[in-house]
User: Fold these one by one.
Assistant:
Number 1:
Amino acid sequence: MQTLKQFQSFFEWVSASISTNSQKVENGESEASQLSDLPPPPPEINLVDLTKK
């Protein structure tokens, strides 16, 4: 059951991120280029920054 909630949270975040990015483009702004430009991910999601060396 926990896995189902994690998937649901993830896809809600993806949808919110797409919506945020679409609104920025629609308003004439540039697309989100950093994670900080998007809504925060759910706490169940562990993001890995692959840009750091």
Number 2:
Amino acid sequence: MVTLNIIGVYGAGIYIEIATSDFESTRSAVAGGADRIELCANLGEGGTTQSYGVIKNAEKVLM
């Protein structure tokens, strides 16, 4: 599951935040040029903090 938020318009640009729920959607958000990513669990319920392991794996592979 992925949600898209426009978090602000600054100067001539629009900054895009994408809320993702797993590694694959996070990788897609990075590839798609997201300015900010919120990696969450339970997006259908409003989003909660993802597990430490999922966050560290995404950081290790994608950063």
